[in-house]
Structure prediction request, 391 residues.
Amino acid sequence: MTTLAWGAVTDTGRIRDVNQDGVLSAESVFVVADGMGGHSGGEVASAIAVEKMAEKTAFNSVDELVETVRRANREVLDRALDDRALYGMGTTLVALAAMTVDDTELLCVVNVGDSRLYLRTAGQMMQLTDDHSLVEGMVRDGWITAEEAKVHPQRNVVTRALGVEEPLLVDTWELVPVAGDRYLLCSDGLTNELSDTEIEEILDETADPQEAAAALVEAACAAGGRDNVTVVVVDVVDTEPTEPDPPADRVVANHQAETVPASTDATGNGTVPASADATGNGAEQGRATEPDRTTKQGRTTEPDRTTEPDRATEPDRATEPDGTTKQGRATEPDTAAEPAEPASTELDSLSWRSFVDWSWLRTWPPSWFAALAFIVLLFAMLLMLVLSAVL
Prediction:
């Protein structure tokens, strides 16, 4: 079984008055959530996400992990509908969970937004997650360089977050646990202040994961601390023997969620809920669907599957309050995989292009167009009066 050691620290930073980050570090599940939306909305959204992730003591599959994230998303959306003061709140989420699937020990990662997960091995440090942000999409499409993205005026715009749309797009990775590996989960309050090289140096200088997490947060605050800073460092202390030559990035399966899964109604019939843009308005659904892209090392590709886990909650998982830390060692429980539901199809959702084209007009209600037409007509009449007076 896989044995882990970890440390977690969260800090408000030097500028903000409220810490809107959330953090969970408990035995086999580790979460960082970076809230956004108003003075208190982000704090509420990240707290909901962490609370939902803490309800289960163990996960049996990556699909079960994804479904828990999606339940957290629904809870954030529902809370915002119930309380208008929280309208527009959202949160990023990145999580690492140790589990056993079909007698194989895995570390599974889920990601939504621009919080990150890094892997530090004996040979290199690499970012495993992809940022769901406006500038990252522009970098991937070749519009700007990575260096230009760091100073882009819209570098803080995320294109995916809990509390924005339903169903939620969730990227996943399945990793081989290797003794000696170190994982870093963090909010952008760390990566906006420190370069990857600086982060790597601090991780290498400090063997204890709790001390490493504290050193990273301290360095980010010293560099400016313009945002909340949250860090979780997880070390793989021991594990069952793995294949003699595991992948350098430890990835054995990766699903990049470019499409939204169809849900089912109360009768079990398949439905495709309306998507939403960054403002929460419904987005166009008239684009063709395509199957999920799932890669499996040494195996043929297979579609993404979504399971319905047991809804019962288990309270013996503690979350980390603001400003506190937690350290411990845990052995991954031996759990059996739960059966998966049939494969689902998904369809494209929000991307950075929605910020630079006119497709967002399709989300306007008719009343907005009527108001715009009235303003244009009023302006035209005023212009005619001015011209007639002059001539």
Remarks:
- Residues 366-390 form the longest helix (25 residues).
- Residues 261-359 have pLDDT under 50 and may be disordered.
- DSSP finds eight helices and 20 strands in the chain.
- The CA atoms of residues 41 and 230 lie 18 Å apart.
